[in-house]
Amino acid sequence: MAAVAAVTLFASGCGFLGTASPRNLDVISVSSPRFRDGGPLPREYSCKGNLGNPPLRWSGTVGAKSVALVVDDSNPRTGAEVHWVVFNIDPNTTEIGEDDVPRGALQGKTTSGKVGYAPPCDPEGTYRFTVYALDAKLDLSQGAELPDTLREIAAHTIARGRLTAATIE
């Protein structure tokens, strides 16, 4: 039940990762060579495909001690869902390859309880790939519980950027 509450606060847009008051954050530029912001997520990166996570690139994490990535869907029809959490990414890393996790990075549990990329399925969903620059390396282990991971990311965020896929092809 706590995981559902954390995801709801995180994805509802009623504050930054569930915090009461949003902070002024620096902006990270996030892109993908496979889809444009606001465009559809290629089918190959959904539950109908077999390519795993899409490749992502970012810039603007200068001064970060680590980087985190959260992929979520805030579809009001089906409810909030987190599809992937990656944290403790080396701050010098500026991209994630297709079906890849950067060396040394850790993955937390998703809404479904899976550790790793849980491909989205709803063709009408809005999928957000959000990159966070953090002021610390998170004191969490591989497979950390979703509420713990989201809380720690929120507590240490100094910059944020997002790439959104409006639907699935």
From TrEMBL:
Pfam families: PBP
Region (Disordered): 96-119
Recorded superkingdom: Bacteria
NCBIfam families on file: YbhB/YbcL family Raf kinase inhibitor-like protein
Similarity annotation: Belongs to the UPF0098 family.
Protein name: PEBP family protein
Source species: Thermobispora bispora (strain ATCC 19993 / DSM 43833 / CBS 139.67 / JCM 10125 / KCTC 9307 / NBRC 14880 / R51)
